Amino acid sequence: MLDKHELGLRIRRARKDRGLTLSDMKTRGGVSATHMSEIERGLTSPSIQILVKIAKVLDRPVKFFLEKNWLDSVARTSLENRPAPSDVGDGSRAQPLSSGIAGHHLGIALLRLDPGTHCEVEQDAHEGDEAVLVLSGSVKVVLGDREIALDTGDSLHFSANRPHTIRNASAVAVAEVAWAADRRLETQVRRAEASAA
């Protein structure tokens, strides 16, 4: 959780990014200019009700103001600045392609699966959607009791509310997949690393 000074700075930056004045905050959200000034200068912390009003006027989810690390509303990750790939199982590596953006949960990773049917990345059921795009090779995605084969160029979008697995369908070729999920993939990668250890 942010301290009141960091929270105030974040609110001020978001307000200025939207081109709003303290008076605009009063008009649009019912938060007095004096109170907004005190919050932005870190002299006081907003109540949850006030923070909800501020977030609504600034068109941000409340959690945007509560996340420990500042994330911008745009995330560009150049090839040379990507994190190193992490092992997520025997012969499977995942490389996050984005650090994420503030208040949102879409994550995308490059998944490399070495040859063989035992190179699997398993996921528990969870809320949200996932999508895969096969960049090279062929994979099998298992959704509960359903198995779907995908080749280079194929894509799949599915509800992640049932257990799901992705594995290389080839015994000789590497498969590379762009994998997107509406929750941060770093959490999934860390869980997979912990279970593989």
* Biggest sheet overview: 6 strands, antiparallel
At the third CATH level, what is the topology name of the largest domain?
Answer: Jelly Rolls
Instruction: Name the helicity range.
Output: 25-40%
Average pLDDT score:
83
Number of domains: 2
Radius of gyration: 21 Å
Biggest sheet, spatial arrangement of strands: 1-2-3-10-5-8
The CATH class assignment of the largest domain is Mainly Beta
* Cα-to-Cα separation, first versus last residue: 30 Å
The number of strands is: 10
Order of helices and strands: HHHHEEEEEEEEEEH
Secondary-structure arrangement, i.e. CATH architecture of the largest domain? Sandwich
The helix count comes to 5
Estimate what percentage of residues fall within beta strands. 25-35%
CATH superfamily of the largest domain: Jelly Rolls
Describe this structure in words.
- It is a single chain.
- It is elongated and about 65 Å long.
- β1 (86-89) and β2 (92-96) form a beta hairpin.
- Strands 1-2-3-10-5-8 form a six-stranded antiparallel sheet, covered by helices on one side. A four-stranded antiparallel sheet has the order 4-9-6-7, with no helix packed on it.
- α2 packs across α3.
- It has helices at residues 4-17, 22-29, 33-40, 48-57, 185-196; strands at residues 86-89, 92-96, 107-113, 120-123, 129-136, 138-143, 146-151, 155-159, 164-168, 175-181.
- The model is unreliable at 184-193 (pLDDT under 50).
- The chain has 197 residues and is of the alpha+beta class.
- It is built from five helices and ten strands.
- The chain folds into two domains: 4-65, lambda repressor-like DNA-binding domains (434 Repressor (Amino-terminal Domain), Orthogonal Bundle), CATH 1.10.260.40; 79-196, Jelly Rolls (Sandwich), CATH 2.60.120.
